[in-house]
Design a protein that fits this description.
The chain is an alpha+beta fold. Among the domains are: 80-183, 2-Layer Sandwich (Phosphorylase Kinase, domain 1); 184-419, Transferase(Phosphotransferase), domain 1 (Orthogonal Bundle), CATH 1.10.510.10. 36% of the residues lie in helices and 12% in strands. Bound molecules: adenosine-5'-triphosphate. Residues 506-516 have a biased composition (Polar residues).
Length: 577
């Protein structure tokens, strides 16, 4: 069993970080040492170097009796397993690991692309926590890097509307790592999907205000979340919303822009610039997602549930209008040629959402601007008339108490209901076509698995058939090591021109079925065993199909269903019933 030091040690280290900051603020001296932790076995001293730039936290071993001191030294050296230090040293250096056996696992409460999440009891404090177990399948570098990035980012954030990383637990035996979080009973998508739950305007304002406050904090600290969606907005029984899942987050510096991957954000919440392949972007990506969530809460269902990137962009243009000619020229986005529609679309947000409270429309319009620069900032959104017009946001504590309603709870409840109805194991089919329950389809964000997987599969076949040199290049997404925002060169494949017109795709026809897809970073290649399978055509220049090639294919063979494209066209985005 790995690890070592108990909760008190970790807490001490955290405390001392705060305390040393306080010292710097208040004393203005060039160096300081102070004892911060109370109990004798955990006395810790904070030392600050002469410049005040660096804070160092050291356990004051002098206060320990001999054997204790020896134990501490040994544990301190061996606190982290070497395999973990080797792969994520920077991220975990500031943390002291907890022993896995100081937690009692209660239930599995969630499953993500690279993790399982458990409800657990902290046996030292009795507190209920969430343990996010990162799966290091064969030490898959992506899982490790997502985890390392999440830890690094979370240690820079401290806000009531951002989930707090409370500790790390490791076990040398199982080669796994747990992130310890405060336990949150609900998530927004689970709540919204609950039968009978219909949020009032003050409640929606309360949630969105908290979301924007959390985002404002992230952005002010130079962090882009890059996966804002309902299931990543956790809510506790006091009505406090916290932004969670920073596995796709990145640091960015607006005055020193670096290229970043565009393969981020779950499809339904992904802004047009990312769908068009932008590699220079900023806070606008999170604000777009926030706009989708605001409109979703007001409409009572997701507003743009696309199943492929093509369909997603089509839905965006249909609602928000296609960009003006100057935008296409100015943006120089890699996929502009691919997705530029032949006919311009007129913006129709106001008509589509005519039943929304009038004070919400300017904010929806702003956040869903095609041009990211027009989306403003989280601070500006918080100052918008939506929040100053009556009825105002309610107090979080006045929000109703809901039964457990995470996506997983909803899934389990649905399964149970199906079982009760004796339908378990049977597929609900009509004419051989699987009918998706409306609630399944409309109320849950599909975590963007393989974008255009069908196209990909057929392109693969085509490549083999044409003996194209098929040097497999899996879409390793945001391969953090290739994400410029974390100081590495960005995947150059995004810069490759793609030469077929989406407008062609919009008017081709087919009857083939398509699956919801989307291909965000994590889903496209994070977890062992899946990354090699998940690729998208536009990420590999070798696989960029020519216009003639696409035209030459039977529509069904490229997996694009005009059926749904047309359906998408006539589909009303909808307003709250
Ligand atoms: N602190 C928490 N308290 C309660 N439940 C949580 C907590 N953190 C995560 N969960 C649950 O676990 C699920 C998966 O967690 P998370 O999104 O962080 O994992 P992930 O592997 O990054 O997932 P994804 O692939 O969806 O991005 C969440 O949707 C949520 O339901």
């Amino acid at each position: 069993m790995g690890c070592v030091l108990g909760k008190e040690d970790r807490r001490s280290t955290r405390d001392l970080r705060h305390s040393s900051r306080d010292i710097r603020r208040s004393s203005g001296q060039s160096s300081a040492t102070v004892t911060v932790a109370g109990d004798v076995s955990n006395v810790v001293k904070v030392e600050r170097d002469a410049t005040g730039e660096r804070e160092t936290a050291r356990r004051h071993t002098g206060d320990f009796p001999g054997p204790e001191r020896r134990r501490f030294r040994m544990e301190n050296q061996q606190g982290w397993p070497s395999w973990l230090m080797a792969v994520a040293g920077d991220a975990i250096r500031d943390w002291t690991p907890r022993r896995a056996n100081t937690f009692e696992k209660l239930d599995k409460i969630g499953q993500g692309t690279y993790s399982n999440v458990y409800k657990a009891r902290d046996l030292l404090t009795g507190k209920i926590v969430a343990l996010k177990k990162v799966r290091f399948d064969n030490l898959e570098p992506e899982s490790v890097k997502f985890m390392a990035r999440e830890i690094l980012v979370l240690s820079k954030l401290d806000h009531p509307n951002v989930i707090k990383l409370e500790g790390l637990v490791t076990s040398r035996m199982s080669c796994s790592l747990y992130l310890v979080f405060e336990y949150m009973e609900h998530d927004l998508s689970g709540l919204a999907a609950c039968q009978g739950v219909k949020f009032t305007e003050p409640q929606i304002k309360c949630y969105v205000q908290q979301l924007l406050s959390g985002l404002e904090h992230c952005h002010n600290r130079g962090v882009l979340h890059r996966d804002i969606k309902g299931s990543n907005l956790l809510i506790d029984n006091e009505g406090i919303l916290k932004i969670a899942d920073f596995g796709l987050a990145t640091f960015y510096n607006p005055s020193h822009k670096q290229p970043m991957t565009s393969r981020v954000v779950t499809l339904w919440y992904r802004p047009p610039e990312l769908l068009l392949g932008a590699t220079y972007y900023g806070v606008g990506v999170d604000l777009w997602s926030a706009g989708c969530i605001l409109a979703e809460l007001l409409a009572g269902k997701p507003i743009m549930p696309g199943r492929t990137e093509v369909e997603q962009l089509h839905k965006i243009f249909k609602l928000c209008g296609s960009p003006a000619e100057e935008y296409w020229k100015k943006s120089k986005l890699p996929n502009a040629t691919l997705f530029k529609p032949q006919q311009p679309y007129k913006r129709c947000i106001a008509e589509t959402f005519k039943d929304f409270p009038s004070s919400s429309l300017p904010l929806v319009e702003t956040l869903l601007s095609i041009d990211p620069d027009e989306r403003g900032t989280a601070t500006a959104a918080l100052n918008s008339e939506f929040f100053t017009t009556e009825p105002c946001a309610c107090e979080p504590s006045s929000l109703p108490k809901y039964p457990p309603s995470k996506e997983m709870d909803v899934k389990l409840r649905d399964e149970e209901a199906r079982r009760q109805r004796g339908l378990s194991g049977k597929t609900n089919t009509v004419d051989g076509v699987r009918r998706v329950k409306v609630r399944d389809r409309t109320s849950r964000a599909i975590p963007a698995p393989e974008a255009n997987a069908e196209i990909q599969a057929n392109l693969d076949r085509w490549r083999v058939g044409n003996q194209v040199k098929a040097k497999s290049k899996s879409e390793k997404f945001p391969p953090p090591h290739q994400d410029g925002a974390v100081g590495h060169p960005q995947d150059a494949s995004h810069k490759a021109p793609v030469s077929f017109g989406a407008s062609d795709l919009f008017i081709s026809s087919s009857t083939s079925n398509t699956k919801p897809s989307g291909g965000s970073a994590k889903s496209a290649g994070a977890v062992g065993g899946t990354s090699r399978r998940r690729r998208t055509n536009k990420d590999d220049p070798q696989m960029a199909p020519s216009r003639n090639f696409i035209r030459g294919l039977k529509p069904s063979s490229i997996g694009l269903s005009m059926d749904y494209l047309f359906k998408g066209r006539s589909e009303v985005v909808g307003s709250r019933k």
